[in-house]
Design goal:
Length: 194
C-alpha cells in the first residue's frame, strides 16, 4: 500500500479496508480479479464491519439484562421456552406478514431483552401514546412486546379498560390480532445476588 492510500484510509476512517488492503490486493492480483471486483470486495468488508459495529453499539445502549442469542440462551435451564418455536420466529417470517409477538411470563424467565411492559403504571397521556402507536403499526409493522402481565391484567397497567378491550379485541385493530402469544412458564434464570 502506498503512503498516500494508507493516509487516506486513516483520514476517512476506513479501518477495515486499511487492515485488509494488502492481503486483498495480493489475492486479487493472483486471481486476476477486475478492479471493480477488488473495490467491491474492500467496500463490502468495510460495510460488514460497520454493520457489526452498529449492532454492537445498539446492544450496549439497550442495557439488556442478559446478552443471550439463540446459540447462548440457556435452553436446558428453561424448559418453559419452546426452542423450535423460537427458532421459527428467528426466521422473521412474522415480520414479512406484519404479525406481532407477545411474550408473557413471570419475571426472570428469559422473555425480555427490552424494558419490561407492565412494571410501572402509565400516566393517561402515556397510555394514549401507546394506543396510538399500536393503531398506527397495526398490520403495517410487526411489534414485539414482553410482559409479566396476562392480557386480562393489561387494563391495570394501561388504566383505561375500554381502550384495552378495544386494543385486545380481534375485531379491532389490535396487537393481539395477527399475533403469536408465547407464554413462558418455567423457572427463573437469574441467579439472586446475595
Amino acid at each position: 500500500m502506498t503512503e498516500e492510500i494508507d493516509q487516506l484510509l486513516k483520514n476517512l476512517k476506513l479501518r477495515r479496508i486499511l487492515d485488509i488492503y494488502d492481503e486483498q490486493l495480493g489475492a486479487a492480483e493472483k486471481a486476476g480479479v477486475s478492479y471493480s471486483e477488488f473495490v467491491a470486495g474492500l467496500l463490502r468488508a468495510q460495510w460488514h464491519e460497520r454493520q457489526e459495529g452498529a449492532l454492537e453499539w445498539r446492544i450496549e445502549r439497550a442495557n439488556l439484562p442478559e446478552r443471550w442469542s439463540l446459540e447462548t440462551f440457556p435452553w436446558a435451564r428453561q424448559p418453559g421456552v419452546n426452542r423450535k418455536q423460537i427458532r421459527a420466529f428467528a426466521e422473521l417470517d412474522f415480520m414479512a406478514k406484519h404479525e406481532n409477538l407477545v411474550f408473557v411470563g413471570p419475571t426472570a424467565v428469559g422473555k425480555t431483552g427490552l424494558d419490561e411492559f407492565g412494571y410501572l403504571n402509565l400516566k393517561p397521556e402515556q397510555s394514549n401514546t401507546f394506543f396510538k402507536l399500536m393503531e398506527e403499526r397495526y398490520h403495517r409493522h410487526s411489534t414485539i412486546i414482553t410482559t409479566n402481565l396476562m392480557y386480562d391484567e393489561w387494563h391495570n397497567f394501561l388504566g383505561n379498560k375500554p381502550m384495552v378491550e378495544a386494543l385486545l379485541s380481534p375485531a379491532q385493530r389490535a396487537p393481539r390480532h395477527y399475533c403469536h402469544t408465547v407464554t413462558i412458564d418455567g423457572p427463573p434464570l437469574r441467579i439472586p445476588q446475595g
